[in-house]
Structures are given as C-alpha cells and as structure tokens.
Amino acid sequence: MATEQATLAGGCFWCTEAIYKDVIGVEAVESGYTGGETSDPTYRAVCDGETGHAEAIRISYDPETLSYGDLLDIFFHTHDPTQLNRQGNDVGTQYRSAIFPHDEAQKAAAEAAIKRNREDWDDPIVTTIEPLGEWYPAEDYHQNYWEREGERNPYCMATIPPKLQKLRKSFADRVKSEG
User: Fold this and answer.
1) Which entry of 12, 15, 47, 156 is annotated as an active-site residue?
2) pLDDT of 102-143, one tens digit each?
3) Are 133 and 100 in contact (CB under 8 A)?
4) Is 156 tagged catalytic?
C-alpha cells in the first residue's frame, strides 16, 4: 500500500518531529507551517504571530503498520491538547493544537480521536480540526532539529525528553528505539 500523510500541530515543531521520528511505521517527518494566510512564511514571521500559521509537522507513514487513529492517539498523549493557543511557555496561535485532515476519512477519525481521548484529560480538549491549507516546509535548519541540535539547546533538553518518555511509556510497542 502507498504511504499516507498526516498533518498535525502540537506546539513547537521540533518537539512533535522528535516524537514521530521515533514511531514505528513513520517513514518521514517534515517541519513546516500551515493554517494561515501568508504565502511563503518565514520562521520569524510565524513566531511573531504575524501569519496565522501554526508550527506543524507533515508525517509520511505506512498505514499497514500504523493507523491514522494510532497517530492521533500518540498526538493526544505527547502534548497538552487542553491548552488553548499554547504549549508550555510557547504562547500564541502559532503553537495551537490542531489537526489538518487530508480527506473526509481523516476528518472523521480526528473527531473520533478527540472523543476517545477526552476522558484522559481533566480539562476539555481544545484541539481544533482545521481545513488542510497550503503546506510550507520550514527552513532547512529546522528539519531533524532534535537529532542535529537538540542536546545543545536548553529548551529542547527541557521539553523533548519528557515527551519521549511519555511516548515510550504509553506506546512502548510503537517505538523504534531508545535513542
């Protein structure tokens, strides 16, 4: 079967990219921007909240190995879907929790995943389901950021290892490696 794609925004794209790169069935993860009005946005403009875009990731995955529903369950357990327009210290719509379905089946699966994961949180899930707009890959230095720069970046060291621990604890059968 052919590779499928999923587009998710769960705060900082360095963090979400690091999580999905460690999931069995994920073939590629690209950091980028979507959901806004500005053509060809830059990282600085997105960070400044000038574009309407979210920091997001586009995942290419093997649906015979990993279902879209499983991708979404991982999403809901490795970021806080109850925080509106923020993840931790990152504040603004560019850090919103959002799902950008590629078709009607993904939209229905996203709605089901929100309902399914609701009981795991004390506060309501505020993750939005938004139309898939134009995808803009982030600048090259953002791609594979955790692998290349993470250990030199205090923000990454404080944020990503706890998310990877959640992944390994809750989805041990889905993890590629301990690294």
Assistant:
1) 12
2) 999 999 999 999 999 999 999 999 999 999 999 999 999 999
3) yes
4) no
**Contact criterion met (CB below 8 Å) for 69 and 165:** no
Domain map (residue ranges) of the chain: 4-174
Q: Concatenate the DSSP letters of all residues of 11-80 into one string.
A: S-HHHHHHHHTTBTTEEEEEEEEESSS-SS--HHHHHTT-S--EEEEEEEE-TTTS-HHHHHHHHHHSS-
Residue pair 128/7 in contact by the 8 Å Cβ criterion: no
Residue with tokens 């574009």: 51
pLDDT tens across 11-31, in order?
999 999 999 999 999 999 999
Question: What is the number of other CB atoms lying within 10 angstroms of the CB of residue 126?
Answer: 16
Which tokens hold the place of 71?
């991708």
Q: Write the DSSP symbol of residue 175.
A: B
- Tell me the CATH architecture of domain 4-174: 2-Layer Sandwich (3.30)
Task: Determine if the pTM surpasses 0.85.
Answer: yes
